[in-house]
Amino acid sequence: MQKPFLLMLILISSFTYLSHAQSVGGVPLEDIKSTYIHLSRVGFTFKSKIRVSVDFGQRVSGERLNESFISDSDGRSIEFNSMIDALNLFDLLGYEYIDSNCVDEDWPGQYLLRKKKPELVREEE
User: Fold this and answer.
1) In what order do the strands lie in the sheet with 27-28?
2) Would you say 113 and 37 are in contact if contact means Cβ atoms under 8 Å apart?
3) Which of 20, 31, 69, 123 has the most CB atoms around its CB within 10 Å?
4) For position 94, what pLDDT does the model report?
């Protein structure tokens, strides 16, 4: 009984640590103050991983488009296993899913999220 609890605690704390090192255009994810954010999935032709572009109202010009991708502390774009992986990260950061749009026939590629309202946030038991 203690081993699963300990494992879960370690996973949550390591995921929390990793989320603090992630940023968009130099803004740490936990410092984004926007109520709404827009996520776009960008896939690779021969890879199963994806990158995620985040629009929270920041100014991004054509030549600086890479600054809209989630990056690590070294500035390298982070690759996610799936869009659910990225959505789970933003859930931990206090956002909730609102809507999605299909870019092609099979896969939603754009997601609208909203910061959770305090009265809707559940406290962990």
Assistant:
1) 27-28, 23-24, 70-71
2) yes
3) 69
4) 92
Give 10 or 99, the one with higher predicted confidence.
Answer: 99
Spatial separation of the C-alpha atoms in residues 85 and 79, rounded to whole Å: 10
- What does pTM read for this prediction? 0.69
Q: How many CB atoms lie within 10 A of CB 73?
A: 11
Strands (DSSP E) contained in the chain are 23-24, 27-28, 36-43, 50-55, 70-71, 95-102, 108-115
pLDDT in tens, 40-70: 988 777 788 999 999 998 877 666 667 888 9
- CA–CA separation, 102 vs 97, rounded Å? 15
Name the residue with tokens 């103050």: 33
The rounded radius of gyration (Å) of the Cα atoms in the chain is 15
Instruction: Give the start-to-end residue ranges of the domains of the chain.
Output: 2-116
Q: Check: CB of residue 78 under 8 Å from CB of residue 51.
A: yes
